[in-house]
Design goal:
It is a single chain. With 280 residues, the protein is an alpha+beta fold. Helix content is 50%, strand content 14%. It contains 7 helices and 7 strands; from the N terminus they run αααβααββαββαββ. A 5-stranded mixed beta sheet has the order 2-4-5-7-6. The chain has a two-stranded antiparallel ribbon with strand order 1-3. A hairpin with a 3-residue loop joins strand 6 and strand 7 (264-270). The longest helix is centred in the N-terminal third of the chain and has 35 residues, at 49-83. It is elongated, with a radius of gyration of 23 Å. The N and C termini lie far apart (84 Å). 27% of the residues are buried.
Length: 280
């Protein structure tokens, strides 16, 4: 009997050790600073519009494939571990299933953001615009990110003048605020503050007391799938700021980023008013 018990204990120990290795592998892969495939070289700029469009499509597919590959590989590895005896240990099984759930959530976020990017392929003329009450939209964004902020012990404040409005597409203003808020909360340490504030007509900002970034990184942050610190952007698709920039371009709006390492960042947005004859 003692030999059987000893063998069972040894088997459980091996399963637990393998589960630890799988867990570590998934975590280390997710935090790797590897970048998506590089963009086509500038030498292709002289090619025809059709060829350029095909190259952009090919690059987009390559980037998406790169981002999808890792979470799918992680889920496969976790399932293999469960099938290879991990189910026999309830603690190991639960840990593996929790990690698989995290990877599935990551995939869902990526798919949602990809759908947003596709929807944003509309032309400027196709986007309905109106005068949007910023305070209402800011409150909506605050409530939507409340769970994330609470988990990180980050305070989110809304400092918007009553009646302050921007001329824009309301759902896309929601997308901008949600992406900027989520990004600010993730990069703000415990006890920090994130603030949505109105400014001059058509202008508002999202600022934080987070870790900030080097000035050299600022021009890169709006690129698709770009992440400054993958360990902090766990669960991020790397598309949030790219979506923000795309929406701003569709509105002919501007964004300015000021950041200092160890002190935080401020994203200031400026939306133009309606053009003459636009009906606004």
């Amino acid at each position: 009997m003692s030999d059987v018990t000893s063998q069972d204990n040894t088997k459980k120990k091996r399963q637990s050790e393998r589960a630890e290795r799988v867990d570590t592998a998934c975590t280390s892969q997710a935090s790797q600073s590897s970048s998506p495939p590089s963009s086509p070289s500038s030498s292709s700029s002289s090619s025809s519009p059709g060829a350029s469009s095909a190259a952009n499509t090919s690059q987009w597919i390559a980037e998406v494939s790169h981002e999808l590959r890792l979470p799918i590989a992680n889920v496969s590895l976790l399932v293999e571990t469960l099938l290879d005896g991990g189910l026999e240990d309830p603690q190991v099984a639960r840990r593996m299933l929790e990690r698989a759930k995290q990877e599935c959530d990551r995939l869902q976020s990526l798919v949602n953001d990809l759908l947003s990017v596709e929807k944003l392929s509309e032309t400027r003329e196709q986007i309905p615009r109106e005068w949007v009450d910023l305070e209402n939209r800011a409150q909506y964004a605050l409530e939507s990110t409340q769970k994330l902020a609470k988990a990180g012990s980050v305070q989110v404040k809304v400092s918007v003048e009553p009646g302050f409005r921007v001329y824009a597409n309301a759902p896309q203003i929601d997308q901008i605020l949600l992406n900027l808020l989520e990004n600010a909360v993730k990069f703000t340490p415990e006890g920090g503050i994130v603030t949505i504030k109105s400014g001059a007509p058509g202008c508002f900002s999202v600022s934080d007391t987070g870790i900030g970034m080097p000035e050299s990184e600022i021009p890169k942050i709006f690129a698709r799938f770009y992440r400054i610190d993958r360990s902090r952007s766990k669960g991020s698709t790397g598309l949030g700021l790219s979506i923000v920039k795309h929406i701003l371009d569709l509105h002919d709006a501007k964004i300015n980023v000021q950041s200092k390492e160890g002190e935080g960042s401020t994203f200031t947005l400026e939306f133009p008013g309606p053009r003459l004859g636009s009906g606004g």
